Every structure is written in structure tokens, then in C-alpha cells.
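Weekly structure sync - notes
Attendees: PM, LS, DV (DV joined late)
Agenda: review two folding runs queued last week.

Item 1: First target. Sequence and C-alpha cells pasted below for the record.
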Amino acid sequence: MTITFKGLARGAACAAVMLAALPAAAKEFRLGLITPPPHVWTKAAEAFGAELAEKSGGEHSVSVFPARQLGNEAQMLQQLQTGALDMAFMTVAEVSNRVPNMGAFYAPYLADDIGHAARILRSDTARGMLEVLPQEAGVVGVGYGSAGLRQIVSRGEINSAEDLSGLKLRITPFDPILDFYNALGAAPTPMPLPAVYDALANGQVDAIDMDVELIDVLKYYEHADTILFSNHMMFPMVGLISARVYGSLSDEDKALITELMAKHVDSTLDTYTEKEPVWTENLMGVGKTTKEAGPDFFGDAITEWEAIWSEKAPSLPDLRAAAEATK
């Protein structure tokens, strides 16, 4: 049997037509987080994956990797930039290490309470700050979530800001919070979440900067004497898609994935608004000394922070205006 060149050409053309008629190959996306499985962010990521599989008719799915399984946030951000990782729910803190303007979200006492924080993060000003991420960080930001407001848990008694001086205090490793605790004279100590409980138990650190969810759920209070309810900073999260991966998607998939991820990231704002008072109330009953602190407690540290970040974060005045408008 003789196969002619024209026959091969016709066969190739027919194959191309048949392939074009087939649905796009199913895609299993990988989404990384640093939070443990019970955390609100992890549950939101899983809900996003489940709805994407449903709405795409099984064409797409999401495998969620919590608890730093894919590395710390700096490593995951690098993976997003190269396209080795598809998606992440990540602290705005880590993004601010690459895009300093995002550090504006950590202005001390920007938000009055957890509900106010949600309104700030849903503002046009906050959403507009995502627009530069593809160019400056190689990622597409779809919207904001939250991990509540920050508190301080200490192994010793805390009666004033001076009591924080010299304390080894666990922080998330990023510049805005580092500058804040340096201004207080503390010894800020970056440390990943999985190491915090044991570090507080054995005295490797004297205190921690943490949200009420994890203080309650992971029982950090068990090895502390004082819980200082200060609400001194927001701690927002952002849903990210690798810009390389995003660019490879069809317009239809871009719209679907962006819509659903934004929905589930945003849902964490409502979760924290609802549950933060419950977690706070739980901590009132754990037998530890509990105190409240406002801006006056921290004194000149707030002014020092503002002096540093008013230059690094040009959106800070606009974000403060948005905060004022959403009270």
C-alpha cells in the first residue's frame, strides 16, 4: 500500500480538526499555603477547589497543599513567578517584601475592628493596589482575605510597652512588622508557624505576635502568662495566580477561576468578622491574664513606623482615606 504526501496532509488536517473539536485538557492546579489544615484560609482554598471542579464540569480541579508543604511563602512566591506553582493564598506581608507599597496595609491601627478591616480590604483603593502585581511580582491578585487583627501573647507580665523591650518576640518575616517591633525596642524573631508552639513552650521566644484564631485553636496560650488584646495591625491575605499560568488560560477559564477564587478569598473576611469575637471570648476563659491596649500603649513606635512607611508605601494616604470613608 502506497501512502502519498497528499494523503498524509489530508490525514494531518483531519486530525487537527478532530483535536480542535475536543474539549481542552483537564487541568489540575496546585495551590499552596502556609496555614495548617484546620485554618480558615485552608478551608476556603478547599472550598474554592471543590466549586471550580463543579462549575467546570470536572474539567479543572485544585490540589491544596497546606502547612508549607511546598515551601515557605518566599519560596512559593518564586514558584508562582516561574509557573512551577499555579496558585496560592498568601499573606500580603510576603508580597510586600517584593512590592513595598503593599506594606501600607500594616499601618498600626488602620482598622478600628475586624469588620472595619473587611470594609477597607473591599474598598476600591485596596483593589486598585493589586493592579501592579503582574508587572512587579509576576502574579495576578484576585482579591483579599484576612487573618484577623494582631495580638501579643507573652510568657511574662506585660503592663506597658516598656515591658516588651528586649523580648524575643516571634513575628512573620516581613519588613512592616519588623520595623514596628524594632521601634518598640523588642527583638523581633522571624519564625514559621509550625515552630511557634514549641518555641514558646521552651522559652526560645518570650512572646509572639499572632491572631486570636491561632492563639485559641492551636492553644498558644498554654505556655503564656499574658494575652494582650491590642488589635494593633490588620493581617490581610491575597489570592494569587501565577501570571505565567494565568496567561496560558482561555478567556473563559480566566473569568471562571478569577471569579471563584475571589469569592472564596473574600469569604474569609466574613468568617473572621463572625468568629473573631467567639475566639476572643474563648481566650477570656483560659485562666491567663488578659489586657486591652490601644494606640497610646505603643507610644512613639507608631510615629516611627509612619515615618518609615510613608516613604516606602505611596498608597498609605489613600488607604487611610479609604479607612476613614468606611468607618
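Item 2: Second target, run right after the first with the same settings.
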Amino acid sequence: MINKAILWPTDFSTTASHALMYAVEMANFYRVGLKILHVVPRPMGDENFMILAITPDELAKSMEEAAAAKMRDLLAKLNTDLKVETRIRQGDAAEEIVREANETDVGMVVIASHGYKGLQHFLHANVAEAVANGAHCPVLVVK
């Protein structure tokens, strides 16, 4: 039995939104809270942004502010009585999701898989697979 929150990592895609339905259903079933996590990638370094008029720190702040606005919109549309906690982190998506799952009060992760196959699977990092392999709690991967 799960008595800790359900973690739903999101990149705000349609696929991730589909997994939200499962996360809410699981949280309602177990009568636990819902944690929503979005990971903003870290800007790579000054040399990659020479043509920009902003620093990598300013870019990261702007990305976080955009993610926070998307998170507010998502919460406004989420019709639930669940206790919902949101978090925005910077870094590698898989690493940060695993860190959240393993270091906080999470009983299950419900994550979307973008379902890449063949060559696309090798060209795109499979975050869901990395989370399933790294998390200490159960992970539900939704296609």
C-alpha cells in the first residue's frame, strides 16, 4: 500500500497530460497527495550563448518563469480535491526526477513515455526508462 505522494513529472506535452489522468486516479485511490515536477534544462555555458543578449543565468530564470506560468495554468485546469505540490528544478530531467523520487516523500512515480522506437529511441534520451531504473519506488510508465 502506498501512503506517500504520487509524483507526476511533466514536460507539459500532450503525452505527459495523458499520464496526469493516471496520476490523479492513483492519488485518489490511495488517498495521498500529488507532486508535480517540471525540470528546466540547464543552459550549457557561455560559449553557446554568444549571440544572445542575455546570460545563461538570465536564460535559465526566464525558462523557470515560463515553466511556472505553465504550472499555474495547469493547476487552474486541474479539478481535484487532492493536496497538490509543485516544484520546478534545473538540470537533467531523468536525474532530477529520480532525485525527487528517492529523496522526498514519494510512493510512486507516474510518468509518460513518448514511445520512441527504432532509431528515434537511440536519438532521444529515454527519461521514463532512466526513471524506472533509478527510482526506489514503483514507477508507472504511461504510453
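Discussion on item 2: Helices lie at 14-30, 56-77, 93-103, 118-123, 127-134.
Action: LS to circulate a short write-up before next sync.
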